[in-house]
Amino acid sequence: xxKTKKIILRIIKCAxxxxxxxxxxxxxxxxxxxxxxxxxEYQLELTTGGENSIRVVQFSDVHLGPNFxxxxxxxxxxxxxxxxxxxxxxxxxxxDVPSQFEGRLNISDVLGKLKSTYxxxxxxxxxxxxxxxxxxxxxxxxxxxxxxxxxESSIIDxxxxxxxxxxxxxxxxxxxxxxxxxxxxxxxxGATLLLLHQPDLVDEVGHENFDLALAGHSHGxxxxxxxxxxxxTPPLAKKYTKGMYKLGNDHHLYVNSGIGTTRIxxxxxxxxxxxxxxLTL
Length: 281
Prior knowledge:
Largest sheet: 6 strands, mixed
Radius of gyration: 21 Å
CATH class of the largest domain: Alpha Beta
Distance between the termini: 77 Å
Shape: globular
CATH architecture of the largest domain: 4-Layer Sandwich
Order of helices and strands: HEEHEHEHHEEEHEHEEEEEE
């Protein structure tokens, strides 16, 4: 009888501890981690013995809406400016449901405060096309001081005969990416920075066609289990889900985990991030 009571008490204790742990994890995942913002920094040598250094700061998947406000965007802008970027790259999904976001007219007042040496560049994400976004996105970004690259490129003159090609592809889910058109104006002697929303598209582009590719879309899975990895990622972010990938000897892809959330406002083991790349050319 005493043994039975001890067993019952142990079961009850385990159930209480398990319940408390579950509540703690849920609370952390919904209330704490979605508000965390970390900075990840990388150094890459794109040209052996290069003398030019350029800092590229990437942010992605803001998803302005019920779970990410303009006030939070203001804090993000301040943090990015403190990093003193030479180039700022936004890899898509500005608003969660663009037609429903009432603060659309005020976005450019906030994003327009971003400062960089050589310019700010943006590409389209699926949320920028969908939800009425195709009516607002390009105008907002241009007013914010961004050059929106939709299957086109831009050349940055770094001096000393060095140039950096910035190539932007259209969204692959609701847009129409055209690799040949995007690369038509590239300086073949320069280093190549590719911006795109969906990371898995790099296999279609060809790894030899970029030195560094920056993507978003996956949100890193939003919920990541140790050892297991992301529970689920969206289409075109199945192969490359988060972080840095070395593709061949001299080609890299970075998948940013994003700033905001979509569908469910949850993050676990996958905080929002700004990614910084100090490139030697």
